[in-house]
Amino acid sequence: MKAIPNFSKIIENDLSIIHSDVFAGLCSLEDNSIQCAVTSPPYWGQRDYGFEGQIGNEKGYSEYIEKLEAIYRKLREKLDPQGIFFLNIGDKYLSRYGNSKLGMIPYKLAKFMKDNGWILVDTIIWYKPNHMPGSVTNRFISTYEPIFIFAKNEENYYSEYIQNEKNYSNILKVNLQATLYNHIAVYPEKLIENLLTLGLPKNSLVLDPFAGAGTTAKAIQNLKENIFENCQMKVILIEANEEYIKIIKKRCNISPKQEITKIPFKEYETRKYNENGERKINNFVFKKEQYYSREHIIKIFNKDSDLFQFVNAMKYGDIFELLNNKGIIYLGIKNNDIDNIHLISTLNLYKWVIRNQLIIKNGKSWYPVYLIVKDIKKVKYGLNIDAVRIGYKDLKEKDWEGTDFIGYKVENNLNKNKNNGLILKVEKKYKDGMPKNVIVKWENEIFTKEIIKHNGHLNESAFSFFCPKCKSKLLNYYDDEIEVKCTNCKTLLWENFGTVPILKIDGELYPQKSEINNIDVHIKNSKKNYNGKFKDTSKINFGASPGARSSTQDEYFSVKRLYNFPQRMFADLLNILLKNKKMSKKKLTTCFPTSYLHTIGHWFRKDMGGSLPTPEDLEELCKYLDIPLEFKKLLNARSLVLQTVKKSYKGKNPGDYLEFQNENELYDFLQKSGKLK
Question: What is the pLDDT of residue 550?
Answer without folding.
Answer: 46
